[in-house]
Design brief:
Pfam families: Adenine_glyco. It is a single chain. The chain is mainly α. It has one domain: Hypothetical protein, domain 2 (Endonuclease III, domain 1), CATH 1.10.340. About 65% of the residues lie in helices and about 0% in strands. It is globular and about 50 Å long. The model has no long low-confidence stretch (mean pLDDT about 95).
Length: about 180
């Protein structure tokens, strides 16, 4: 993603994400869920659009509290579809609610979303895509790739000569631990 390392620094939205989040290891359930929601909503749109709407997504989806989102019913679904601050796509909204339910259930089987990912790591990109498609909704190859790169499970978020890459390596992301 060399272009991102060139264009993001100094940008009001891309800069902070590039410098402090993209590619760093994530294990917190709400943060993982947020990244998945943002990647799902980016499909067909620019990442800048999603980053600009990020705070509205946080409010709309109760700060990505998995239990709250998993319990959403018709009233909350309609509220989301009427919320001009987020991306109002029924398939994406339904996928987010469904995926929250799946993540909630992962607590019993794997101790949570992070435990589920760790239990399946390492895998090739193609294997991850198959697993995500079996498990979640609205998770195609690009969404899975970006989600896993952004949370430190696949390499490639930054060029080797990007100063952020050195900080990511020091944080020991999963892709580096399993080499």
């Amino acid at each position: 993603m060399s272009e991102y390392c060139d264009s993001a620094p100094g940008h009001a939205f891309h800069g902070p994400y590039h410098e402090h989040e993209y590619g760093f290891p994530v294990s917190d359930e709400s943060e993982l869920f947020e990244r998945l929601v943002l990647e799902i909503n980016q499909a067909g749109l620019s990442w800048l659009t999603v980053l600009k709407k990020r705070s509205a997504f946080r409010l709309a989806f109760d700060h990505f509290d998995v239990d709250l989102v998993a319990a959403y019913g018709d009233k909350q679904r309609q509220r989301l579809l009427n919320d001009a601050g987020i991306i109002r796509n029924r398939l994406k909204v339904d996928a987010v609610i469904h995926n929250a339910q799946v993540i909630r259930d992962m607590r019993d089987s794997h101790g949570g979303f992070s435990g589920w990912i760790e239990a399946h790591h390492p895998r090739t990109h193609a294997e991850w895509v198959k697993l995500f498609k079996r498990t979640f909704r609205f998770t195609g190859p690009e969404i899975v790739n970006e989600f896993l790169m952004s949370t430190g499970y696949l390499p490639g978020a930054h060029r080797d000569d990007c100063p952020v890459q050195q900080r990511i390596v020091a944080a020991r992301p999963a892709w580096l631990r399993n080499r």
